[in-house]
Write a structure and sequence with these properties.
Helices cover 38% and strands 20% of the residues. The chain is globular. With 427 residues, the protein is of the alpha+beta class. It has helices at 4-11, 17-30, 41-44, 67-79, 86-95, 154-177, 184-192, 202-221, 227-235, 242-253, 315-318, 333-336, 340-349, 377-383, 410-424, and strands spanning 33-40, 52-55, 99-102, 108-109, 121-127, 133-137, 181-182, 264-269, 274-278, 286-288, 292-297, 306-307, 354-363, 369-375, 388-395, 400-407. It has a five-stranded mixed beta sheet with strand order 4-6-5-1-7. Helix 6 (154-177) packs across helix 8 (202-221) and helix 6 (154-177) crosses helix 9. The protein contains 15 helices and 16 strands. Strand 5 (121-127) and strand 6 form a beta hairpin. The chain folds into two domains: 4-29 and 256-424, v583 domain like (v583 fold), CATH 3.90.1700.10; 40-247, no CATH class.
């Protein structure tokens, strides 16, 4: 945590908040994320402990978690063998014998409930421009019932084991044999091919498969086990790349931290509500109510089933992707509702609340204009335009029941700027 005195002294290095924002944006724009490895969480996440289960959103105590996010935490404890049954898991969390932590505190991000346990493999993404690292765990597969959607049963357990024992080791070996893979140019190309790398990752997943193909062919010749099975899994799961785009976004966003900046460095939600961080206010979260949503539900589901159980995939919007590149992915209308006209209008809105335009991520529909990048909390309040995010929608009984668009609540930005003024004076 940055003290008021330290923050004030640091801000005096700049003549204004605008200069602090310029530095924060420059660091974000220059970030260079590379996926360099896949390792179990216990081996690479800083300070990770074997009895720790991570989840999405601002840090909370065990007793604050409800609904699907609570169920996901219990499932994580059972999968890791930290408890023999549901009752023991609940007792373990309540006593502190099983610890619960927030993903962001460990340089990680999680999709939906975002569960990490010690044995789960995570992508290691290094920001070569600034030296920091971001992490994200593996995609479980396209089955609607997944741990990150609050489900845990025998099928979920077997799929998680399969990720640990077959899929992750093969992908890890391929990445290492390639000497790492640059993600920024891959994402930029995927945008030109119809992705926004949050709710649509079809092109990015194909491009990643192409990047590892030379190593995969060598691995086949070397008789490495599980290669064919892994490549078939990657070929049929368009969402595989989302976890790479999230880890890349985390590694980029963490480099934005500049005392005094009013640019947003993280957005996430939990079962309790939505929260943001500002790049100029260190690790402090500013919380508000659940996000405003609209979407399209899968057949057989209704609006009253929608529930919030966490989510940190909006880290992609934080760096100018996802909803901030929505005009790249007009085919999303079939998946999450809306129309091309509405998607284009929403995307254009985001330029009003951002510091600048990304020099690498560009939108063909706008004449290759850079994506709106660097959400400025001041502009959010001045314009009353709320950041837009593409997300999956979870059901109260677990599993994914649809997809749509959410807007961050205004309260987070108002509270963040009030604290900014307290620490730094007039904004």
């Amino acid at each position: 945590m940055v003290s008021t005195e330290q923050a004030g002294a640091a801000l005096r290095e700049f003549t204004s908040v605008d200069e602090a924002n310029a530095e924060s944006f420059a660091r974000l724009n220059a970030a260079d994320p590379w996926v360099i490895d896949v390792r179990p969480a216990r081996e690479v996440l800083p300070g990770y402990r074997d009895n720790l289960v991570l989840t999405s959103g601002a840090p909370m105590s065990w007793h604050d978690y409800t609904g699907g996010q609570r169920e996901a935490l219990i499932g994580g404890a059972l999968f890791e063998g930290l408890a023999d049954n549901r009752e023991d898991a609940i007792a373990g969390f309540a006593s502190g014998e099983i610890e619960v932590g927030a993903c962001h505190d460990y340089a990680a991000v999680g999709s939906l409930a975002g569960i990490y346990t010690a044995s789960m493999p995570v992508f290691v993404v290094a920001n070569r421009a600034h030296g920091n690292v971001g992490f994200c765990n593996f995609y479980e597969g396209k089955e609607p019932r997944r741990l990150n959607y609050g489900c845990y049963d025998e099928g979920v357990h077997e799929r998680l084991l399969h990720v640990n024992s077959v899929l992750a080791p093969v992908v890890a070996e391929a990445i290492r044999r390639r000497g790492g893979i640059a993600l920024k140019p891959l994402i930029a190309r995927a945008l030109r091919m119809g992705d926004e790398v949050h709710s649509r990752n079809a092109a990015a997943s194909i491009l990643f498969n192409r990047e590892i193909l030379p190593a995969v062919l060598d691995m086949v010749e070397d008789g490495v086990a599980g290669v064919r099975e892994t490549m078939l899994h990657l070929a049929e799961n368009d969402y595989f790349f989302l976890r790479l785009s999230m880890a890349a976004a985390k590694a980029c966003a963490d480099a934005m931290v500049v005392p005094g900046s009013t640019l947003v460095s993280a957005m996430a939600f939990s079962c309790r509500g939505f929260a943001i961080k500002l790049a100029g206010l260190g690790e402090t979260w500013f919380e508000g109510p659940p996000p405003i949503h609209q979407g399209k539900l899968f057949a057989g589901h209704t609006e009253d089933e929608i529930t919030w159980m966490g989510g940190e995939s909006p880290i992609t919007e934080t760096i100018g992707l996802g909803g901030f590149a929505q005009a790249c992915a007009l085919s999303l209308q079939e998946y999450q509702g809306g129309s091309p006209e509405v998607m284009i209008e929403r995307n254009l809105e985001m330029y009003a609340i951002t510091y600048g335009e990304n020099s690498t991520y560009r939108i063909p529909h706008f004449g290759f204009r850079g994506t709106p990048t660097g959400i400025d909390a001041r502009k959010v309040l001045e314009t009353a335009v709320l950041p837009v995010m593409d997300v999956g929608l979870a059901g109260r009984d677990g599993g994914q029941i649809g997809a749509g668009v959410i807007r961050a609540p205004r309260e987070c930005f108002a509270d963040a700027l009030a604290e900014h003024e307290h620490r730094f004076g007039s904004r």
